[in-house]
């Protein structure tokens, strides 16, 4: 696709002709041609877009073309498709961002009011899905709504439930039931005729359609639109907005932030968000957050060494006495030995390593929230192995690791920073360094064992090493 930035169709065609001519001249085995001219485009992800396509015959006919969007699949209700079409038309209308967002918000509020008051016809809630095999051959039939409906229809003598047939169903909840949502979705799926025959027992599960059919479609279309968010859209639909808050860890944002943090000299900024080093007092068994050794300098600038530091700043005095700052007992039992400090440091590092190897993955789709420790080996298109959500095709999201190798390496590096007295001194100029050198030498002897241990653990992490053989190209 080429963005010409032009409003003149003839000039856009001229640019396309030049590109076609040059490419076909250079690549004899490949011939390209003009596929279409688009007036506006909403590009969500790779191979997922919606655009206003202009006719190539010279007329001014326009139509919306959709590629890879969820609402073109069968397993969405007609209601969700209609709302998705409305949102697309608003986004591609050319109106201002504020007007588009306001129109979408007001439409969602109106739709959820109509749904709860029963003004939407039954056919709008119907979901259709095809059987890929006989209903009896499904190993996970209890988790497939259309399979449950097909099995029930077969028991009643209906013959049109074989491989290749399409099964319509509606997700319902029982009337006058306190635990209406405690039963799985598959068990609550009913054929439209079943719902018509027994309306006093079953009713349409409005919350399911709002949260699982409408909200995912709208939130994906509006993901790049300023002025709205998944939580705001959920609020318009009458849902709990807290359940749709954006995730704290996003794969692309996290990778970008790690690249930026790697070049930041300020340790406080680089290690922001890392878990503190928590030490357990050998005397009172209480825990406290161990400050970096650099706190010796910051505390000295605020008060003299002989003055006691109380309250919140008492932890800065830990490195001078190697005792728990919250413990009133100043006996030998309350003092940290080098081996004790090293053991507690190693135990916490092992906990973070175990967290990494648990391999928890979560779907990046706000409406899915599927999490697993297993690796999904399914490959769809050009997706990376292990990233396809197991809920596909109901969900087009991808699995994102919640605790990545970059997180582990940064946490281990933070522990090294907490204990690295030498680096702290090197950052001071010669004149400012002298008053602290003697004190840092004494501290360094105490924490040397723990520092060597955590540095050894961090250096085993492959994330911090560049393999030169991977950079070499064999000829």
TrEMBL record:
Domain Zinc finger DNA-directed DNA polymerase family B alpha: residue ranges: 265-471
EC number annotated for this UniProt entry: 2.7.7.7
Recorded superkingdom: Eukaryota
Localisation: Nucleus
Major enzyme class: transferase
InterPro entries tied to this protein: DNA-dir_DNA_pol_B_multi_dom (IPR006134), DNA/RNA_pol_sf (IPR043502), DNA_pol_B_thumb (IPR042087), DNA_pol_palm_dom_sf (IPR023211), Pol_alpha_znc_sf (IPR038256), Znf_DNA-dir_DNA_pol_B_alpha (IPR015088)
Domain DNA-directed DNA polymerase family B multifunctional residue range list: 1-225
Alphabetized UniProt keyword annotations: DNA replication, DNA-binding, DNA-directed DNA polymerase, Metal-binding, Nucleotidyltransferase, Nucleus, Transferase, Zinc, Zinc-finger
Gene Ontology CC annotation, any one: nucleus
Pfam family, one: DNA_pol_B
Gene Ontology MF terms: DNA binding; DNA-directed DNA polymerase activity; nucleotide binding; zinc ion binding
GO terms under biological process: DNA replication
Main location as per UniProt: nucleus
Family statement drawn from the similarity comment of this UniProt entry: Belongs to the DNA polymerase type-B family.
Protein name: DNA-directed DNA polymerase
UniProt source species: Zea mays
């Amino acid at each position: 696709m080429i963005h010409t930035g032009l409003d003149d169709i003839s000039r856009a065609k001229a640019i396309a002709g030049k590109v076609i001519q040059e490419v076909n001249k250079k690549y004899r085995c490949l011939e390209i041609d003009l596929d279409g001219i688009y007036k506006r485009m909403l590009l969500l992800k790779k191979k997922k877009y919606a655009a206003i396509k202009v006719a190539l015959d010279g007329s001014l006919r326009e139509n919306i073309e959709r590629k890879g969007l969820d609402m073109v699949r069968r397993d969405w209700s007609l209601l969700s498709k209609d709302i998705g079409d409305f949102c697309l038309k608003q986004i591609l209308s050319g109106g201002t961002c504020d007007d588009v967002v306001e129109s979408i918000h007001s439409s969602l509020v109106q739709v959820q009011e109509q749904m709860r008051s029963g003004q939407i016809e039954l056919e709008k809630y119907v979901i259709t899905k095809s059987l890929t095999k006989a209903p009896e051959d499904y190993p996970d039939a209890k988790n497939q709504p259309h399979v449950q409906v097909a099995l029930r229809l077969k028991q009643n003598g209906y013959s049109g439930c074989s491989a290749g047939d399409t099964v319509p169903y509606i997700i319902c909840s029982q009337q006058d039931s306190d635990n209406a949502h405690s039963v799985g979705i598959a068990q609550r799926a009913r054929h439209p005729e079943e719902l018509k025959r027994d309306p006093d027992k079953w009713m349409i599960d409005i919350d399911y359609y709002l949260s699982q059919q409408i909200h995912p479609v709208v939130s994906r279309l509006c993901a790049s639109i300023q002025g709205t968010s998944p939580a705001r859209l959920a609020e318009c639909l009458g849902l709990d907005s807290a359940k749709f808050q954006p995730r704290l860890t996003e794969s692309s944002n996290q990778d970008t932030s790690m690249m930026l943090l790697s070049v930041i000299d300020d340790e406080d900024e680089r290690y922001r968000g890392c878990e503190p080093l928590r030490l357990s007092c050998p005397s009172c068994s209480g825990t406290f957050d161990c400050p970096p050794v650099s706190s010796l300098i910051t505390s000295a600038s605020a008060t003299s060494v002989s003055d006691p530091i109380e309250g919140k700043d008492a932890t800065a005095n830990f490195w001078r006495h190697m005792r728990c700052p919250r413990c009133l007992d100043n006996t030998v039992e309350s003092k940290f030995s080098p081996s004790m400090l090293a053991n507690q440091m190693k135990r916490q590092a092992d906990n973070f390593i175990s967290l990494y190897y648990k391999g928890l993955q979560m779907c990046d789709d706000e409406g899915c929230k599927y999490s697993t420790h297993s690796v999904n080996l399914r490959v769809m298109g050009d997706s990376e192995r292990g990233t396809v959500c197991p809920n596909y095709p109901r969900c087009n999201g991808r699995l994102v690791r919640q605790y990545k190798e970059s997180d582990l390496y940064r946490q281990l590096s933070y522990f090294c920073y907490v204990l690295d007295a030498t680096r702290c001194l090197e950052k001071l100029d010669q004149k400012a360094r002298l008053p602290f050198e003697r004190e840092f030498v004494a501290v360094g002897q105490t924490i040397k064992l723990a520092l060597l241990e955590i540095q050894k653990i961090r250096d085993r992490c492959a994330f911090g090493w560049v393999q030169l053989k991977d950079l070499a190209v064999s000829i």
